[in-house]
Amino acid sequence: MKDPAIQIRLRSLPAVNSLVDQIVAWEAKFGAIGCRDEDRVDICRRSLEAIRQRILQGEEIDVPVWLEEARHAIVKELQIRPLHQLNEVINATGIILHTNLGRAPIDSQLLHEATRKAGQYCNLEVDLESGVRSQRQKPIREFLQQLTGCESATVVNNCAAATILVLRALASSREVIVSRGQLVEIGGSFRIPEIMEVSGAKLREVGTTNITRIKDFEKAIQPQTALLMRIHQSNFRIRGFTESPSLEELVELGHKHNLPVVDDVGSGVLIPLTPFGMNDEPLVPRSIQAGADLVLFSGDKLLGGPQCGIIIGKKSLIEKLEKDPLMRALRCDKITLSLLQGTLQKYLQAKDSWPDILLYRLLAISIEELRVRSAKFIAELSSLEEQAEFQLAEETAYVGGGTLPDQALPTIVIQVSPKSISSEILCKRLREKFVLARISEDRVLLDLRTVLNDQKLAGVLKEALEGICYPDHFAASAR
Ligand SMILES: *Cc1c(COP(=O)(O)O)cnc(C)c1O
Which domain of life is it from (predicted)? Predict the structure, then answer.
């Protein structure tokens, strides 16, 4: 028999529906949170279940007091829950390839078409003409042959996976010669020496940090050498007295000794970026022309596609990679392959001009265009004069994603100096409304280059400055 006091407490708890109605009423009073109905019901139910357990265990809980606190907690959880889920954000940082924001953005039409083709059932591994089983990489291979002049190609999850696959399939328990100046770390967890270790290949470093000559490679070649590797310094540059062998020299040496030469170029640039004032990234077709046996690059850096790692080069080597059991674990899914196919098609359609993909459209936005857009943006915020000061300023941005560390893109930013809150608070409020911005010299900087919907950003900024932010607003009203 239950203690009668416990019974009374349990009976005074509201039903789930009643608690949900109370939360809805609070939202009507203080502004909708914009949460899903299922989430509201779920959180209310779990909140009631937790209190029921505490009462059953004999805790002397004053139900009306608990209810008051529970409403706050429920609203807060409803507000926070979407922040912990994957959601679209507005990127106002101006960093086009932001690794933490998913690197290359993919334009919605391409996205839509690619998911339509592959989302449900698709001819992923069946040849519709003959009816026999085919390879999922085949369509991509043909596009890459046309775009880069390579003999063959394959695709895996990312460039890190590509590197591991190549090293394991071609250099397991044998030596790979790399210049000391190219033992890079990219994105925190991609470190060449560690990648070598997990793949089972032995790293043989040659030369010094700044100078490595072809002779250093030549002297290191031994019977246990498996391949020569060049790695692009992606996210840093060494200046001053520097020297490293050209790809042509490596190819000549490698072929003299019957050793394949692997070129990890990192960012897959297929067309010259000089029209954008950038000439610091290796061109993929040029590595093929120079005779590299395999060239590796990412799909979501300057190629502008989905996350994947592309390997192009000699047919015999690609076949060897595809036969490795690891290939099975590293292969891409149908959606990725479809997105990559759509992206590569855009390059083919563009011939030698820029492909019509979102990344290149963002790169191509001129300073003048940004200035006009930013001025218009500020003009539309005139009602917010009491909350903040807005100014146009010239700034520099970077492409990001471990590419072009030396090439600052001149850009225009909107400097926001909030009058009654700190820049940190404004940034936090924006973040909780799915907007990422930069802070510099105690001002919030908004760079419209990477913003795909100016109006939406203006609306969010207005709410953040006016303090229409549920938790703060809610706390203030409840006091
Ligand atoms: C970025 C990069 C990688 C890693 O590519 P992911 O696709 O991020 O795995 C490997 N090598 C080089 C040279 C890179 O620049």
Answer: Bacteria
Q: How far is the CA of 158 from the centre of ligand 1 (A)?
A: 8
Ligand 1 centroid vs 407 CA: distance in angstroms? Answer: 18
Q: List pocket residues of ligand 1, CB cut-off 6 Å.
A: 158-160, 186-187, 190, 231-232, 234, 264, 266-267, 298, 309, 402
Q: How far is the C-alpha of 160 from the C-alpha of 195, rounded, in Å?
A: 8
- Residue 315's pLDDT is 98
Nearest Cα residue to 442 out of 461, 460, 421, 457: 421
Q: What is the mean pLDDT of residues 212-233?
A: 97
Residue range 437-456, pLDDT digits in tens? 999 999 999 999 999 999 99
- What gap in Å lies between CA 386 and CA 206, rounded to an integer? 62
Q: What residue segments make up the domains of the chain, in order of their start?
A: 4-84, 90-100+363-478, 108-354
pTM for this entry: 0.90
SS3 content of the chain, % helix, strand, coil (to 5): 50, 20, 35
Tell me what pLDDT residue 3 has.
87
Give the CATH class of 108-354. alpha beta
- List alpha helices for 81-213, DSSP H: 108-118, 138-148, 159-171, 192-199
**Residue nearest to ligand 1 atom 11, measured at CA:** 266
* CATH class given for the domain over 90-100+363-478: alpha beta
Over residues 291-298, mean pLDDT: 98
Structure confidence at residue 101 as a pLDDT band (50, 70, 90): very high
Structure tokens, 353:
């001009």
